[in-house]
Amino acid sequence: MTARQPRYTKADHARRGEEVYEQQVRPQVENGNQGKVVAIDVDTGAFEMAEDTLAASQRLLDRCPDAQVWCIRIGHRAVQRFGPGLVKTG
Fold first, then answer.
1. Cβ count within 10 A of residue 63
2. pTM over 0.85
3. CB of 57 closer than 8 Å to CB of 71
């Protein structure tokens, strides 16, 4: 099995992923799927949705073995959250 190589810088990859999500994928998946993960091929716009990043990515790679995968959690700005969540001040 050959390893996939990135075709884009991290910034270009993220920009392409965000554009594909906003223009093509979001209108199809947003309703009723809050919190699920979408894995998107930034080259073709093909996507798969699942409860977690690994499952969504694997489904996409099963269909598109050469995919340049970018993931987003529906209804959130990022796939993962770091830190304790809410921060209390004062």
1. 13
2. no
3. yes
